[in-house]
Amino acid sequence: MALIIETGAGVRNANAYVNAAYVTSYLTARNRQTENGWAAATDAVKEAAIVAATDYVDKRFGHRFKGVPKVTFDETYAEAELVFGGNPDPADELTLGDDIYTFVSSLSGDPYEVLIGASATTTVLNLEAAINGAAGAGVAYGLGTAQSRHASALAAGAVLTLTASAPGTSGALSVLEGPVTNVSITGFSGGKDGGIQPLCWPRTGAYDQTGTEILGIPDRLKQAVSEYAVRASADILLPDPTTDPYGGRVNQRTETVGPITESVRYDSGTVGTVTFTPYPSADKLLTPLLLGSGNGGVIRG
């Protein structure tokens, strides 16, 4: 997986707070660049460790960070394109989602027929009308053709641009395929999901212990991710605990055979809870960014 670095401006699909060079520089400054084989690791291993470290930080501390996420994204819609270099042949079929449009030289009245015009431009207009459910039923396209649920169409000469009905990346999954004679088909792409930023930082309303607003991605966060990353390169940061069917972490189990008896003692308070392994040198770096560490609730005008 390629790193998509959160710069502090709010980055779509961001999955990391730092890159491998940052981690290496951080470790080198502390003469720890060979720790857990970091210096000899491949770029792929380093980047996977950084993603795992970023995930860990957000899962473990996300609910405790000061302030609130800063950026929300507007959704965009995937688009596709049909370029007509000439007219299709009769009986050619274009699939759009679960609708199949059939090009015909004369209409029989069946739904999803599209009349082939005297020119490619006219045929494009007929297909546009069919997809949009516009005027022309029974003349430009078949009677009973429902407006497409999958896309809207816009004609410009011999080019038809389709815009997915579903926003975001889901719209790019809409099926668009032929083959159709003389028509070049470019499938749906480009849709982006809206909603809140993918990572916990950047944030707004977060202040340090002096009352200064924390902007962008704080150095302490990047340093902590570096600490977690070098550990993640060697082991899983948040492994599944050993539990029994009740979900508790077993402290002691005693079994007797004949007659069978069983006694189980659980670690106190572990049933239904998640226990995090302490990583003091990393955990302590994040303390000033957490609620309860001073000025966490201050909102400046």
Helix count, DSSP H or I runs of 4 or more residues: 6
Count of individual domains? 3
Would you count the extended β strands for me? 14
- Give the overall average pLDDT: 90
What is the gist of this entry?
Helix content is 22%, strand content 22%.
Kindly list the characteristics that best describe this protein:
alpha+beta, four-stranded antiparallel sheet, 6 helices, 14 strands, 22% helix
Would you write up a description of this structure?
Helix content is about 20%, strand content about 20%. It folds into 3 domains: about 1-70 and about 200-240 and about 280-300, no CATH class; about 75-190; about 240-275, no CATH class. The chain is elongated. The chain has helices at about 20-30, 45-60, 120-130, 170, 220-230, 280-285, and strands spanning about 70, 70-75, 75-85, 95, 100-105, 115, 150-155, 160-165, 175, 185-190, 195, 205, 250-255, 260-265. A hairpin with a 4-residue loop joins strand 13 and strand 14. Mean pLDDT is about 90; it is low at about 295-300. With about 300 residues, the protein is α+β, with helices and mostly antiparallel strands. The chain is built from 6 helices and 14 strands. The strands form 5 sheets. Strands 7-8-3-10 form a 4-stranded antiparallel beta sheet. A 4-stranded mixed beta sheet has the order 6-5-4-9. Strands 1-12 form a two-stranded antiparallel sheet. Helix 1 (about 20-30) packs across helix 5 and helix 5 (about 220-230) runs antiparallel to helix 6.
